[in-house]
Amino acid sequence: MRCLRAAIGVGLVVAAGVVAAAVPATGGKPAPGDGLQSVERSAPQPPAAFPPRANVRAARNWIRGRTGASFALIDTRGRAYGWHPRRRYVTASLVKAMLLVAYLRTVGGRLGPADRGVLGPMIRWSSNGAADEVYRRVGDAGLVQVARRARMRDLTVAGHWGGVQFSAADQARFFRRFGRLVPRARRGYARHLLSSIVPRQRWGFSRFAARAGWTTYFKGGWRRTEAGRLVHEAAQFEREGRRFSLAVLTDGNASHDYGTATLRGAARLLFRRPPRERPQEARSARAQDEAGSPAHRRAGLVDVHRYAPGIALDITYAGTDNIAGRRLPGYCEAWALMLEPAARDLGRVQRYLRRRNRGLLVMDAYRPARATRALVRWAERTGRGHLVGTYIARRSRHNLGSAVDLTLIRASDDKRLRMGRFDALGPGAHTLDAKGAVLRNRLALKAAMERFGFTNYWREWWHYEHRVLGTSYLDIPLGCGKA
């Protein structure tokens, strides 16, 4: 989608995929017995990502207009998209796919009739009694283990499978990897169950996927809640060796039909043939794909993914797992924005690290000034006023769009390297106050960042500032509507 390669033959340049003819060294006419010979072909082009970005944009805009809905998608190239992808929902029956995986990981020897007698009903027609029996065997510990292996980040357990909560991002990660989570001998059985849901429960994605030639492995969930009706579905889609995953979670629906219409609308847009775009429209579409708003762009802030799509995010202050124990004001979206020169150089760091099987995980970038003020108030209110001016700035380089908080991950599996705890505000956070692997990893991050124009704040191993500073302390919220 982003590049076009040309094949260069001997004496003739041709378009990609066309065979060039060799010109004999003897000149004008071929010598007797010399035939035209095939020479170099262009390198095979990797297939374009699916779903196309235009379709993902359309589905995102659809979900934005639906009551209580969020979605997450990981495309065939492993790129993640979403709308409120980390919003937590109660599970309903969607967790039964996780119960299936947890159970299959505990079975020794062959699957017996008793095993099949609970797993089949639990998945194919969503028997709650069968789910209770499976849960008694695997418990919360089994679900947590599956979540950890699937790299789910938002799952909470509650002593019964019906009380589990998770996010659309969690389910997209789980279904993307579910085959690898099941022991090899059980994978065929698991795939069979998740592709043979009874027809009356196929009210979401599968009809649109089938029309486009994709096989669907999925599970849905539905129930009443205090907000209204809950309707969920998550799936992995496969075709000719390619796969992608999708999760759409909804709550507060006025009716079950409204919720299923939300699922079908997203699937219809994702599997449709994308409209052709003129170059100007394509450029505009790429801008819409990026995080941020027109106000951010006017201030010179851009999504760090513009220059490095592979950078991972875990925006700490957009959730509750941070030093303040709550989402900070101004963080309504988990976006990572920076001034364009800083984002460009961060992309250079990412590419440099990728060649060494490393990558960046950003925990904070541009920070609205209201969030900085909230951190100061938290420190003073909780008797930690001594942190202000040393670890918590009253006016932060984050407010300028010049600073970033980050850590290292292993590129092959996205596992965080040992660096020490983020936001541990004390001597242990000092970059050089560490030993062994932790110190080596901190120094590796420092060397890579300094190579491309960033400077470390010595008191915080995670905090780096770019050589190009902004001129205005900004207070433009991240996805919260009007400032």
Characterise the protein shown here.
- A 5-stranded antiparallel β-sheet has the order 4-3-9-8-7, with helices on both faces. A 5-stranded mixed β-sheet has the order 11-13-14-16-15. It has a two-stranded antiparallel sheet with strand order 1-2.
- The protein has helices spanning 53-64, 96-104, 113-124, 128-149, 168-181, 187-194, 206-211, 256-271, 279-289, 294-298, 340-354, 369-381, 397-400, 436-451, and strands spanning 7-8, 13-14, 69-74, 80-83, 88-90, 165-167, 215-225, 228-239, 242-253, 301-303, 312-313, 337-339, 358-364, 403-410, 454-456, 463-466.
- Helix 2 crosses helix 4.
- The two termini are 36 Å apart.
- The radius of gyration is 26 Å and the shape is globular.
- It is α+β, with helices and mostly antiparallel strands and 483 residues long.
- A hairpin with a 2-residue loop joins strand 8 and strand 9 (242-253).
- The chain has 2 domains: 53-271, DD-peptidase/beta-lactamase superfamily (Beta-lactamase, 3-Layer(aba) Sandwich); 292-466, Muramoyl-pentapeptide Carboxypeptidase, domain 2 (2-Layer Sandwich).
